[in-house]
Amino acid sequence: MRTLLSGGVVVTCDQNWTVYTDGDVVLEDDLILYAGPRYDGEYDARVSAAGRIVMPGLINAHTHTPMTLFRGLADDVALRVFLEERVWPREIKLTNADAYAGSVLAATEMLKAGVTTYVDMYFFEDALVQAALDTGLRAVVTPGILEAPVWQPILGTWEQRTARVLAFCRQWDGHDGRIHTGLGPHAPYTLPLPALGEIAVEAQRAGLPLHIHLVETREEREAFAERGLGSTVSALEQLGVFEGAVLAAHCVWLDDGDAEVLRHHRVGVAHCPISNAKLGAGIAPAVALLAAGIPVGLGTDGAATNNSLDLWEELKVAPLLSKVAASDPTVLSALQALAMATRLGAMAIHQPRLGVLAEGYKADVLTLRLDDPAMVPLFGEQTYMDHLVYAAGRSLVDAVWVNGRQVVRNGMVLTVDEEATRHAAQRAAEAVSERVAR
Ligand SMILES: [Zn+2]
Q1: How confident is the model at residue 225 (pLDDT cuts 50, 70, 90)?
Q2: What is the DSSP track for 339-370?
Q3: Is the pLDDT of residue 83 over 90?
Q4: How high is the pLDDT of residue 86?
Q5: CA of 249 to the centre of ligand 1 (A)
Q6: Is residue 189 helix, strand or coil?
Q7: Which residues contact 119 (CB under 8 A, 6 or more apart)?
Q8: Which domains does the chain have, with CATH numbers?
C-alpha cells in the first residue's frame, strides 16, 4: 500500500534541516518511500497536505502511562512524598484493568498531540502492551523492576521480577513491527546496587535496552554520596550498567565527569523539563549534554508530575529553561529542541530508524495545520521550524500515521472511542480511590 501525502510543507528533521515548502511524502507499508519535492511516481491513495506541515511523529522518551489515573492527586509535593505517600499506596491497589484504562487514556492523549512513539516504564506490562496494540502507537515497553517493602507482595524479589520481565520481552519484542521492549530497573535508590549490575547483564545478554531513572533530585545524589559511593554514574559504570543500550531519564544532578561517561557509553538521556520543574528537582544540563554529543530526547514523565502528556510543551519549555539557567538566550536553539523531540529522541531511545522523514525511515508521520493565527507570519524554511517550537501546539495536529497506518484524522483518534476512553479512565480512577480509602 502506497500513500501519497501531497503538497505540504515537508519538515524532514534530517541532519541538514531540509525543508520542502511544496513537497510530497510517500508512505509504503510501514516505511517512508520518499520525502522531497513533488513526486511523480505511482501510488494507491492520495491525501492532500496542502496548508499543512508534514513532519516526523514526536517521540516521548519517558513516561508511565497508567499514571494518568493519578493526574492532579499528587501536586505540589516533593518526589519522596509523591512516591511514598501519594502514588505507591494507590499503585498497589491497581488492577490490570485499571492500568489498561489509564494507559489507553495516555496513548489517546499522546496521539492527539502527534506523539507516535513513547517509552513506557510501569508494572502491569500486559496491560501496557495491550494499550499500545489497541491504540496504534509505537511503544517501547520497559516493565519496572524495583525492590521496596510495599511492592514485595506484588512483584516478589527483584530476581523473580527480572525473570518475569525477561519472559515478557521474549514474548513481545518486535510484535506487529511497533512493540519494542526493554528492562526498567526503576532507579539506583529503589534497588540494591549489585542487582542493577546483574539486571544490566541480563539485558545485555538478551540484546535489550535498559531504561532507568538517574540522578533526578539533589536529595538522591546526596543520599548516594553519603553512603560513600561517590557519583551515581561512576558507580553504575563500575557495575557495567552502561555496557549495553541504556536510556537514562532526568540526569539533573550529574557530577563532574559524568557526561563524559555517558558519552563514552552512548547512553541516551530523556530530558523531562516540566516534570523536573514541577517537582522542584532542578534543570537538567541539556546544553552540556548536547554539546558532549549525547543523544538527548524529551519526555513528559508520568501525568502525575506534569500533568499533561503534551510533548509540545516540553518542546518549548526545554529551551526556555536552559536559557533561564544560563541567562543566555543563545544556549539552546529551536532546531536543537526540535531535534530532541524527533531525530535525537530516536537516538536516545535506541530506535535510530525513527524521527526523520527520509527514505527507509519508519512511516511515523504527523501533519499540522497552518491555518491558525499563531502560525502567521511565515518567512520561509526557518520560520516553520521556529513556529513549531515556540508557537505551535497540539491543537494544530491534524493527522497522524504510525508504522504506515493512519490513526488520527481531522484531530480525532481513529483507533479508539475517545468518549468511552475518558469514561473508563474516570471510573478506574474512582475505583482505585475507593479501594485506598477502605
Ligand atoms: Zn519517571
Answers
A1: confident
A2: HHHTHHHHHHTT-TTSS--STTSB--EEEEE-
A3: no
A4: 87
A5: 7
A6: coil
A7: 60, 61, 62, 63, 139, 140, 142, 211, 247, 270, 299, 349
A8: 2-56+364-413 (2.30.40.10), 58-348 (3.20.20.140)
Average confidence score pLDDT of the chain: 96
Q: Whole-angstrom Cα distance, residue 254 to residue 397?
A: 36
Quote the cell numbers at residue 436: 485506598
| Residue labelled with grid coordinates 534497588 | 191
Question: What distance in Å separates the CA atoms of residue 363 and residue 353, rounded to the nearest whole number?
Answer: 9
Please indicate, yes or no, whether the overall pTM of this predicted structure exceeds 0.90.
yes
Count the neighbouring beta carbons within 10 Å of the beta carbon of residue 318. 25
The count of other CB atoms within 10 Å of the CB of residue 266 is 16
Mean pLDDT value of segment 47-75: 97
Checking if the pLDDT of 65 tops 90, the result is yes
Q: Has residue 152 got a pLDDT over 90?
A: no
Helix 334-341 crosses helix 381-390 at what angle (to 10 degrees)?
Answer: 70
| 141 within 8 A of 172, measured Cβ to Cβ | yes
Q: Residue 183 has what DSSP assignment?
A: B
Asked if pLDDT for residue 380 goes beyond 90, the answer is no
**Alpha carbon of 62 to ligand 1 centroid (Å):** 6
Whole-number pLDDT of residue 74: 87
Q: Which amino acid is located at 202 in the chain?
A: E
- Tell me how far the alpha carbon of residue 90 lies from the centroid of ligand 1, in angstroms: 16
Q: Separation of 211 CA from ligand 1 center, angstroms?
A: 10
